[in-house]
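Entry 14. Structure prediction run on the chain below.
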Amino acid sequence: MEEGRDSRFSQTILLEEGEDVRRLELGFYRTSLFRLFLWYSACILSAGLVFVVDRWFGQRFWIRFNCRPSSLVLSAERRQRQNRFLVVVDEARSEGVEILPLKSLNLVREVPISDVFTDTEPIIGTTTTDGGLSSSRHLSELASPPTISTLSVLDYKATRLLLDPRTAKFRPISSWRDPCWTSWDSTSASKGLTDPRTIEFRESMFGKNQIQVEGKGVVEIMLEEVLHPFYVFQIYSIVLWCNDDYVPYAIVIAVVSIIGIVITTVTTKRAIERMRRVSRFSSPVSVLRDSGWVTIDSEDLVPGDVVDLNQPRAPMGCLPCDVLLLEGDCIVDEAMLTGESVPVLKAPCPDQLIRTSLVSDSATQQLKKLDRHLLYSGTRLIRVRPPCPTTTRVTKGLVIRTGFSTAKGSLVRQMLFPRPIRFKFYRDAFLFIGYLGAIALVGTISTIIYFHVIGVDGAEIALRSLDVLTIAVPPALPATLSICITFAIARLRRRRIHCTSPQRINVAGMVNVACFDKTGTLTEEGLDVLGVRSVVDSKPEGRILSPLHHSVQDLRREKPGIRTEEEQRSPLDLEEALATTHDLNLLRGEPIGEPLEVKMLGWTGRKLEEEEEEEEEGGEGEGGGKVILLRTGGIECGRPRNPEGTLARIPIVRGRRASESQVGTDPVEAGKDVALVRTFGFSAQLRRMSVIVKRDGDVGAQLYCKGAPEVVSDLCLSESLPKDYRQVLDHYTRAGFRVLALAGKRFEAMGWEEASRFMTRGEAEKGLDLLGLLIFENKLKEGTTAAIARLRDDARLPIKVCTGDSVLTAVSVARECGILDGAKPVYSARIRKEGKEDDDDDKVSKIGKRYQDVVEWFNLDDEDETLNDLDLNPNLQGSLRLKDVELAISGETYRHLMNQSPKETLERAMVKAKVFARMSPDQKQDMVERLQTLGYTVSFTGDGANDCGALKAADVGLSLSEAEASVAAPFTSHCREISCLEDLIREGRSALSVSFSMFKWMSVYSLTEYFTVLLLYGRATSMDNAEYLFIDVFLVLPIAFGLANTRPSERLSSQPPPSRLATFLPVTSMLGQVILVFLSQTVVHLTLRSRSWYQPPNLDPSDLELKNQDNTALFKASIFSYLISAICYSLGPPHSQPLYRNLLLFPSLILLASFSTYLLFTNSGPIFNLFGMEPLGTEFPPMILSILLAQLVLAIAFETWALKPTSRFVRATLRRRNKVGKTFKRVEREISEGL
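Output returned:
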C-alpha cells in the first residue's frame, strides 16, 4: 500500500473493541482485466507455483501486479457499473493483508442521507493519511444527494463499514445513531417505530439481528492446510520418494499428513459449528410497532425498536440484543461478559441521558455512562419488574445495537479473530528452516557438480540431488512441534486448568513478572465483619472512637458512661447506616449483590424487604382501571418518584422488633422501619456510595455515606472527626484489615420529591458527620504464602499485587504473604501541593501563591523520611539506596506518575513497586500494558469483573472463576488457589524447553542424515530405503513422541528457559552436537577406508549401488548419533523431569539402543539382509562403539558443563558491543548497582 499515500486512495480507521482499539489501514484500488488475464496465465503455466508463493506472502505480489490506487470519489452507480473496486485492509495487529470487494447494498427505497449518516454521529477515530477527514478539493468533486437508495459497504471480520458518499470515507455501522434519539422523551417510548418503510430500511442496512458465524467449507479449510508451506514441502517430498522407490516412507508421511489435515479440518469445522451454535440465538419478542404490541422473532429486531422485557407468554431469558432499559428494573447475570458471578441490578435510563450520551458519545464512553442502564446481549435475565404502579405489567427497553455490534457480538468477534501472539519462537523456527534449506541447497549443488564429474546419469543426478532437500529439511517437524502443545494441554486439563489459546502455553513459560489481584485471589473470597468502632463523645477526651464492637448487640449495649443522653438521641444512627448503605436487591426473598454488603446487612440482623403492590378495593383510576397503591408496612410513600419522573419502587429495611430490644428504650435504639429513597451508587472513581433514607413517620430524611476512609473523611465536618481517627485507622490497615468509614447527615424537612429527584450528589454529600468505622477481616487463602514463596524464591519472579484496597491494607497483606520484604522500609507516594511565590507583587497580593501537584515518596513508618523525586533513592545520609526499600503506589499517584513524571522516574517506579493500591479497573489494565512496554512478559491472576481488562491485556491471563473460560482470560482454573499459576508456569516452561529440545533434535537428526548421505555420495553410493525407513519411522517417531511426553519439573527454576531460537545458547548447542556427529562419522569413515579388508563400492551411472561396506558402517554409526543427541536434549532439569521418569521416552531409548547394538555387532541374519548390509571386520564394531562412547561422553559434557561458557565466548567474540536489552533489565541492573 506504499503507493496509496494520497488521502483519496487510503484511510485510517480506529475501531473500539471493548478495551482494545483496532487500527485499520484501508487502501482503495481498481483491477485491470488485462493484468488479471496475465496473472492467472502465469499461475497456470507455472503449475500453480506463482499462486502458492503469492499466497505465502499475503497476496502482496497480486496487489502490486493487478491493482492500481483509485479514488472512491465516484457515484454509487458508476462504482456498481464498473464493479472492479477493491479495498485492501491492513490491520496493525494482524499479519498480512486482506483483499475485500466493495459491495453494493440496496436500501429498499430512497432514504434521506441524514438517516444513514446522522449529523450527530461521532467520527473521531476516522482519519486519512494526510491527517484530515478530507481535503476541500476532494469534497468539491463529490455529489451529495439528499437521498440515497444504494449504499456501498465493506465487511471485514464481522465488522461492517459504510461508505459516506459526502466524504468518500468509511464509517463503522456500530456508530450509527437514530436521529429520533436527539429529542427522546417519554412519549417516544409509547409509540415505537411507526413507519413500516423505516423498519424495512433498517432491516436492509443492519441485516438480521443474529451473530452469524460465517463458517468456511470443508474444501476451503483443507485447501488452506494443504497450501501451507510445510505441507507443500511434504507433497514435494512424497513425489520425490515415490520416484526413488522409497514408497513405504512416502506412504507413512502421506498418511500422517492426511491424518493431520483431516484432524485439523474436523477440529476447525467443529469449532466453527460450536461457535455458531453458541452465537446464534433467537426467541419470540414482544415489540412496540406503531403504538401496538406485536410478537416477532428476535432476528427481526432493528435499532430503535421498543421491546417488552417482561413478556409473560414467552419469557426472554437470554437477551438477543443490547437494550437500554427505559422503565422498571432488572436483575441480570453478566457472568458471560465479565466472569463476575454476582447478579447486577439495572435501573431505567433517564431521558436526558438518552438525548446526550447515547447520541454523542463513542462506544467506550457509552459503556461508562450507561452501564447501569444497559442490558447486554447474551446476558441472562434473572428478574424483570415493571414500573409501579402499572396495569399492563410491561417493562420497556430500547434496542440500540444488534448483531455483531452488540457486546456479545464483540466477544464472538474477538474469539473468531483473536489478537495474534507475537511469539518469536515460531518466527525463529521458520528462519532456521530457511538456514537448513540453504544448507540443503549447497548440498544439492555440490551433488550435481560431483556426480556430473564422475559420470553419473542425468536422471540419477536429478533424483539424488533433489533428495538432499528432503533430508536436510525434516518434513515431520511441524507435526512434532504441535505434539508438545497437545500433551501440555492434556496435562493442564488434568490439573483443572482449561486453555482456550494453546499458543499461550509456550508464552506462559516466558513469564517474568506475576501480578495478582488481592481480594478473592490472594485472600479468601468473602470478607467477614470483625466489628465496628463508633464515634462517641467522651467528656475527658472529646470525640473518640469507641472500643471494637464485635456484634450488633455490643453496639446496642454501648456503655452509658461513654455516650451522653444527647448523643443517644441523635437523629443519625450507625446501626441504621450499616443496615441501609448498600445497593442490594432481593431475589426470592434473599439479598443479592456485593458480598461485602450482604455480610454488612447480615451483621446488623435487619431484614431487607421491598414494598408490595396491592390493589385498593373499589378504587378506580382516571382511566377507569384499578389504582395501584404502595404499601410499605406503615410508611406512607406519598407516591415517590424516580429522578426521571416515574413512580419509584422503594426498598424497606425493617426495624428490630420489640422482642429484640429492651422495653423503654429510645425509639431510635429500638429501630424503625426505614425506606431507601435514593441511592447514589458506588463509583470506582469516587470510591464511595450514599443513600437517602426516611424513617416511618419522619418528615425529615437522613443521608448515609460509606466508602474509603480517606475519601469519606474529606466530606466530613472537621469537628466531627475523632481525635484518634488517624491512629485507629492506621492500626487496622497496617494489620491487613479492610476498613470502611460511615458518615451521615440529617435533613430536618425533606419531601419525597426533593429526596428522590432534585438533589444532586454534590449537594447531598457534603458537611457530613462521621459515625464510625466498619472493619472487615480478609484472611489469606491457605496456600497463598507457600505459593508466593515458591514463585519468589524458586522462580525468582518479581511479584506485584494490584488491588482496590487502601495502600496500608495492601502493604499489610503483601507483607503477610511474603510479596514485600518485612525487613525493608516501605515508601508510598502521595500528592503534595508545592507553592511558588509569583514574581509580580501585584499578582502576589491578589493571587498569593501558585500551586502545583508534586509526587512525594514517604516512609509509611516515618513520614519525615522521603525519597529523591527523580531517581527515588532515599534522602538519607547513610548508604541506603532504592534497592534497600520497597515501593507502594496508589491509584491517584499512579495517574500523576503516568502523566507528569520523567521517564526515568516512571521506569524505576514501575519496576521497583510491588504494591498498586486503590487501582480502578482501567488502571489495572494500564499497569499491565505499561509493564509490557518495559519488556516484561506479564501474567495477571484475578477472579472478578474488575480484573477483566487486565486479564485480557496480560500475556498470560489466569482467571480463578467458574465462568466461561473464553470470556475473561485464555486460562481458567477451577482450583481457586494461586498455586495454579505455579502449575501453569511450570507447564509453560516445560513445554517451551521441550519445544526447543524437539526443534534442536529434529535439526540435528536432519543434519546427521544429511552428512551421512553426503559422505556416501562422495563414494558414489547412498542409503538403502529400508535404512531410511528405520531411521525416519521406527527411530524418529518414538523419540519425538517421547520428547513431547516430557513432564514438567516439580519445582520452578530460578533460570527461565530461553525464549528465542535465534540466540547464542540454542545455536551453540545445535552446532556443538552437529560438530561431534560430523567428527564421529568422519572418523568412522576414514577408519573404514584404512582397513585392509575394505572394498569400495562400484560405480553404476544409472543406479547407484547401495549394498556396500561404506553404507553399512555409516548407517550403524549414525543411528547411535540420533540416540546420543536425543539423550542430550532430554536430560530434563531444570524445567523438566529427569529422563528416567519419562515412561515413554526412556524405554524407547533403551529398546532402540539395544537394537542398534545388535545391528552393530551382527554380520548376518534376516535383519542384516533386510537392511542390505555387507560384513565388516570383527575388530571394527568395537572400534565404532568406542568412537560412539567418546561422542556420548563429550556430547553430555558439552551440554551439561561447556555449553554456557562456550556460548558466552562466542557472544563476546562476535559482538564487540553489547546489544541494548529489554528496558526492565537495564533498570533492574541500575537499581541493583545502587545508581
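The chain is about 40% helix and 20% strand.
Filed with the rest of this week's runs.
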